[in-house]
Amino acid sequence: MEPIYLDHAATTPIHSDVQAKMTDVMQHHFGNPSSIHRYGRDGRKLLDESRTTAAKALNAPFSSIIFTSGGTEANNLAIFGTAHAYRAQGNHIITTTIEHHAVLHPCEQLEAAGFEVTYLPVDQSGQVRVQDVQAALRDDTILVTIMAVNNETGVVQPIQEISDVLTDHQAVFHTDAVQMFGVMPIDVTELGVDLLTASSHKIYGPKGVGLLYKRDDIHLEQQLLGGEQERKWRPGTENTLAIAGFNQAIQTLQANREKRHEHYQALQDRLILELEKQGIEFSVNGDLTQRVPNIINLSFPKTEVEMFLTNLDLAGIAVSSGSACTAGSIDPSHVLKAMYGEKDARLTNSIRFSFGIDNTEDDMQIVAEKIKPIIERLEKVVT
Ligand SMILES: Cc1ncc(COP(=O)(O)O)c(C=O)c1O
To answer: What's the domain range around 67?
Structure first.
């Protein structure tokens, strides 16, 4: 049996369109976009085309796109950049307990540097409450950073409603939309955000490239010093190869977004159906309606995640616990902890399935059939 990859929220393979584009760039377009000669102009053209594509995909102006080395760097630039640029106006930052570490760790570092950070809780739905944002807002709040879609549960956060609350407030509003970009259409004006993060390797593009949308009137303190690239927001010779791949991944995504969305939903529905058919006991972590179709986090009582993942891997199924793996052991997920509390069994028996364009509905049947005996075995060990 061919292995079945169900960990697309971690990363996706590179799409064949993207491979073709990158091969062409590698062979024929190596110029440094800052050079005056024809090779440089050629590199500049690639860059401009990519910026146009990214801007269009977000319904944003050309000048608002800053290419970065990925989602992590874009989040760091947004958070440190805003906090330091607006410090004269306040010292308070609002975020949530379920953010990716590329948001949480910068916030923790700012806290250590003297900023005050409010970490908003979530309930069992995995969603942040708009009234909690309202209640946490202070006159000296300078930054609100809340993710658009949670990477472990797939739960969609009420970004537009939060932006309504912030309308007349000075706070800059950043959203980490890494897990939203590939599945939901994004219009930064409709969403009402000032800063937005996206990453290429979650949408069938290459790793090591992403972007920060920055509304033109928002100021950031530079985090890197060097040349004039990306209007100085992100100096360093542009990674034109990866950016061109990202460009192609966005174009292919835009042309297929609805089809992909339907496909992911069909896979998710089929997986649930097949698990039920097998009589497997499970529950869904997080809200059942406010979610993207390509990520589902399931708890399997009487199992233990590390053994479960290893057994699934041996059976040819690649999934993840959704949380970090440190030194070979899996830390309990901070997202599930925020939803259920420290002691809940779901922290140690939950698995994230994330679907991709190459998965088939038949795969879902195979997955459920393979899970059944594994769970039966694990039940004997764990209980
Ligand atoms: C929600 C979220 N934010 C940020 C990142 C980091 O993006 P990158 O891997 O491009 O640095 C990820 C990747 O796992 C993510 O899921």
So the answer is: 16-251
Q: Where are the beta strands (DSSP E) in the chain?
A: 4-5, 65-68, 92-96, 116-120, 141-145, 172-176, 195-199, 210-214, 283-284, 295-299, 317-318, 325-326, 329-330, 350-354
Show the tokens assigned to 381: 């060990």
Q: What is the dihedral of CA 59, 64, 69, 72, to 10 degrees?
A: -80
Q: How far is the CA of 282 from the centre of ligand 1 (A)?
A: 27
Residue 102 has pLDDT above 90, yes or no: yes
Full strand arrangement of the beta sheet holding 65-68 = 65-68, 210-214, 195-199, 172-176, 141-145, 92-96, 116-120
Q: How far is the CA of 101 from the centre of ligand 1 (A)?
A: 8
Q: Which residue has the higher pLDDT, 380 or 9?
A: 9
Give CA torsion, residues 76, 64, 164, 184, to 10 deg.
-80
How many domains is the chain built from? Answer: 2
- The per-residue pLDDT for 38 is 98
Q: What CATH number did the domain enclosing 203 receive? A: 3.40.640.10
Check residue 302 and give its pLDDT: 87
Nearest residue by C-alpha to atom 16 in ligand 1:
151
Q: Which ligand 1 atom lies nearest to the CA of residue 150?
A: 1
Tens digits of residue pLDDT in 109-144: 999 999 999 999 999 999 999 999 999 999 999 999
Average pLDDT for 8-27: 98
Is residue 107 annotated as part of the catalytic site, yes or no? no
Place of tokens 């942040």: 128
Longest dimension (CA), the chain: 70
347, 337 Cβ separation under 8 angstroms: yes
pLDDT at position 326 is 53
Same domain as 292, residue 183: no
